[in-house]
Write a structure and sequence with these properties.
Elements lengths: L1 H119 L3 H74 L6 E9 L14 E8 L8 E11 L11 E5 L6 E13 L3 E8 L7 E9 L2 E10 L1
Antiparallel strand pairs: 1-2, 2-6, 3-5, 3-7, 4-5, 7-8
Length: 328
Amino acid sequence: MADWKRYSKDYNEGDNASSNQSATSNTTVWILATLLAIAVITSVYFGIQTNKLSDKSTDLSTQLDDTRTNLEGQLGELETSYNDQMTENESLTTEIQTKVKEVEELQGKIDNMRGQLASSKANAKEIKTKLATLEALKVDLETEIIGLKDQNVQLSTANYELNEELITTNTEVNKLSAQLTELSANNEALNQRLMTIAPAGYRADNFRIAVQKRNDKLTSKARQADQVVVSFNLDNVPVDRRGEGEIYLTVTTLAGNPVAEIPTKTVSIASANEPLKINAADTKAVNLETNQRLDMSFKMKDDLEAGEYNLLVYSDKGYLGSTGFRLR
């Protein structure tokens, strides 16, 4: 019994020992399996990481190549820019040297001007006086210029009016010339008759007639006529006719009748048979010489009628000559 118990005890102790060994083996296997799994996972992880690092290394290599290329390009641009800056710097250096020289020259001129200014201060008062005088003259000249401009405007207006009047006058003169030509035949017949009746021994010729308005402008209109001015030559006066005497101007219609609108006085002149009475519109005392030109005139007390008129010139010794004019 005691032996069985001892056997049972030994068996149980052996069985327990076997169980403990089995448990220990299982634990070891599990640990090894776990370690293997960890190793595998670690290997896979490191493989993945290695691939990633390889890819990153490739990308970094590419980026580095690109960066190097860019840097090389930038380096080339910087070298070009540096060369340009060096060239520009050399040009600026030359320009600066030129400017420095100019500044030095200007400084010399400034010094010279300062010297002149210092020497001119003594005359400053006189210069100021002259400037004040010149300024006053300038004001006077500006005033005169303004006045001259106004006068120029007035003269331009007057010139225009004179040109218009000249055109009118030329037209009237042309008309009068035509009228005188037309009257010449009638005057010549009257001239011959008077020369036969009462010759003075010399003649009046080269007549010029001006019919004037009240403003002394010429006209050919009867109602505007205020005064008639007659000029003529007395040439080749004989010796016995020279000296003091009187010249008379008469006006008649074309038919030889007196003109009532012209004031006259009756005078007698010498003729072949008996003294010839005439109505003198103007009388002029003269001292006759060999040659002279005389002016005579008369005014109207009323408006003349339009038509043709004769002008006859006498001396106290007889008839001298005639002409005519026409009024519209």
